[in-house]
Amino acid sequence: MQVDFIIVGCGLAGISFCEQLRAHNKSFVVFDNKSQQSSTVAGGLYNPVVLKRFTPVWKSKEQLQMALQMYQNLEAEFDVKLDHKIPVYRKFSSLEEQNDWFTASDKPLLSEWLSTNLIKNTNAYIEAPFGFGEVLETGRIDVKCLIETYKTYLLKNNLFYEDEFKYNALQVNDETIFYESIESKYIVFSEGFGVHKNPFFKSLPLVPTKGELLTIHAPDLKVDFVLKGPVFLIPLGNDLYTVGATYDWNDTSNTVTDKGKEELLGKLKTLISCSFEVVDQVAGIRPTVKDRRPLVGQHSIYKNMFVLNGLGTRGVMIGPYVADQLFKLIALGIPLEKEIDIARFS
Ligand SMILES: Cc1cc2nc3c(=O)[nH]c(=O)nc-3n(C[C@H](O)[C@H](O)[C@H](O)COP(=O)(O)OP(=O)(O)OC[C@H]3O[C@@H](n4cnc5c(N)ncnc54)[C@H](O)[C@@H]3O)c2cc1C
Prior knowledge:
By secondary structure, the chain is an alpha+beta fold. The chain folds into 3 domains: 2-44 and 144-205 and 291-345, FAD/NAD(P)-binding domain, CATH 3.50.50; 87-137, no CATH class; 208-288, D-Amino Acid Oxidase, subunit A, domain 2 (D-Amino Acid Oxidase, Chain A, domain 2, 2-Layer Sandwich). 27% of the residues lie in helices and 29% in strands. The chain has helices at residues 12-23, 38-41, 60-78, 95-104, 110-113, 143-156, 258-268, 315-332; strands at 2-8, 28-31, 45-46, 49-50, 55-56, 83-85, 88-91, 114-119, 132-135, 139-141, 160-161, 170-172, 177-179, 182-189, 206-217, 226-228, 232-237, 240-244, 277-289, 295-298, 305-309. Strands 1, 2, 11, 12, 13, 14, 20 and 21 form an 8-stranded mixed sheet that branches. An 8-stranded mixed sheet has the order 8-9-7-16-17-18-15-19, with helices on both faces. Helix 3 (60-78) crosses helix 8. The relative contact order is 0.19. It binds flavin-adenine dinucleotide (FAD). Flavin-adenine dinucleotide binds at residues 8-14, 31-36, 38-39, 41-45, 164-165, 190-194, 211, 213, 244-245, 284, 286-287, 309, 311-317.
């Protein structure tokens, strides 16, 4: 079989790149063995503001525009609901924080996203005496649905191998890449934390950050916005809510822990006072980078080999943006932004 591209990894990075390939009529196959699950478990939030410091996310405007367009296209093509628009309410913990919010909302860019209406709390089960600030243009992508839908599409079209990609079976020369019975012009690795097993890119400074999330059933809570306090509380419908997330830099397993659960419950109980039941717990490893920029680029020796990784804590927004940059590099020779290029580490 001859293709233009082999893609390794079918998470947010891999799917975003496949969407570039489909848009430009390039042929490809995808490998994924479910060894990583960052995208599958992700809360799926997109939000253009850093809610700790009230600053804009890097390239937030460009990212948001590209990401929403991609999810909208996928919704139309596959007839699924992916983009659940929902406001994010940032809980204020003091008058000083309220003031910081209003100062920030005057600044360029942020004025588009930080509402200047102070929202008073009217929910008896939420503890928020200083009220909330509303972030505009936010929502939740149903990433699990996206991945399931995408894999079904790929399988139907014989483009998907539910297999481990074996790096030692790869043969590379100047023009062509050979892998088992596949001949390809290029290969793009988007394995998330799985890249630590990839002999071609494992020296990249990717830092695994484990995250855990709970799903709770809270029939009395009746919240229809994302609440950001010491944890995020994200309504899913049917009185179910995602609660998260934890950050652990030592454990690189995908298994849930009692420690993670206790941490989340401790924080949640300072935010809401109604009774609830924990119905699920999940964990995944975020592919984060010290300088908080993605890892995108070309292998220093094998010029037909590329990496798309380091989406960190914000894969929903950043994935489509960096996939566009990588495609333009490969197809048109347009250099990557220096900030995301892996060359910054060489
Ligand atoms: C708990 C948690 C909550 C999060 N919440 C949010 C959120 O609300 N909003 C947001 O934007 N981001 C969130 N994130 C971050 C987001 O999930 C990541 O940025 C994103 O998932 C990274 O996508 P990826 O495709 O690079 O990696 P992954 O999702 O890890 O995908 C890599 C894929 O490669 C496959 N793979 C690896 N090695 C091989 C191999 N050798 N052969 C075959 N397949 C292989 C894996 O099976 C996997 O499917 C969250 C993450 C976690 C853990």
